[in-house]
Amino acid sequence: MADEHQFIEDGLQRSQINEFFEDELGRAGYGGMEVAKTPMGTQIVLKAEKPGMVIGKGGKNIRKVTTELEERFDMDDPQIDVQEVDEPDLNAKIVADRLANALERGWYFRRAGHTTIDRIMDAGALGAEIVLSGKVTGARSRVEKFNRGYIKHNGEPAENVVDEGQGVAVMKLGTIGVTVKIIPPGATLPDDFEIAEDADAPEVEQAGASGEGVEDLLADVDDEEVPETEPDLPGDDEDVPDADPEDVIDEEVVEEVIEADETADGDAAETAEPSEEDEPELDDLDEDVESEAEDLVAEMEADEDDEAESADEGDADDEEEE
Description:
This protein is an alpha+beta fold. It is built from 9 helices and 7 strands; from the N terminus they run αββααβααββαββααα. The chain has helices at 3-24, 51-55, 60-73, 92-104, 109-122, 156-160, 214-223, 251-272, 282-321; strands at residues 30-38, 41-48, 78-84, 127-134, 142-149, 163-170, 175-183. The strands form 2 sheets. Strands 5-4-7-6 form a 4-stranded antiparallel beta sheet. A 3-stranded mixed beta sheet has the order 1-2-3. α4 runs antiparallel to α5 (109-122). Residues 274-279 have low confidence and may be disordered.
């Protein structure tokens, strides 16, 4: 059988054995069990409020339970050890069964819950939680919680520190599940710490013990001479490697290139801008305009004289014909 299947089988067998003890030892105040397999057989440790009822008169009841385990669960030589619970109010399984019995006897769930959790805290628990789920008062089921103190719900402390127990109350309206979680007194949690009162602390020399105050210390700092250091320039470093002769730029060549560029730019500017000599003078333009205007005026007057003469000749011809 594979390991996974073996784990499942072991867990199922453990649950069935726990239910068997709940039914057989419920009146004796069954408080849980611990199962450990040994080379000699299976070691079972029972926790009960009344160990005498578990053992029975002359060991009759314990022998009956042992025989039942061998036949029903096929266990080889089971060895049962019964231990008494020192404080029943700090055992989650016993408290859950008591609360379930109280609900079955007709206790109001709120009164039963507060009374039970108060008894748990009075016993010295660091924290407790009671959860009732089911039809507690009406036809609709709901969940009621009662909390006191400090409780862990997840992580390793919830598995190793918190004691959890379940019980069932069978009512007329339906079944009510009871879950009780208790952190016992003296439990060590990961966030706990202790303060050592007798610890020897190392002596620390105080600045004021020598008679010097803050002003004296500041004055001493001002009096100290701060060495003036010149900043290191890149050119001053002796470790800078010499430049490659091929990479060195000749200054004369650069100057010649710059002068050639400036002369080329100057010639381009001269060609782009018209010279003053090429521009016509304003006086010459004015004289030409005046001469042209005089010629136009003279032509217009001559045309007017010719038109007048032609008109006079036409009038003379008309008179002669008459």
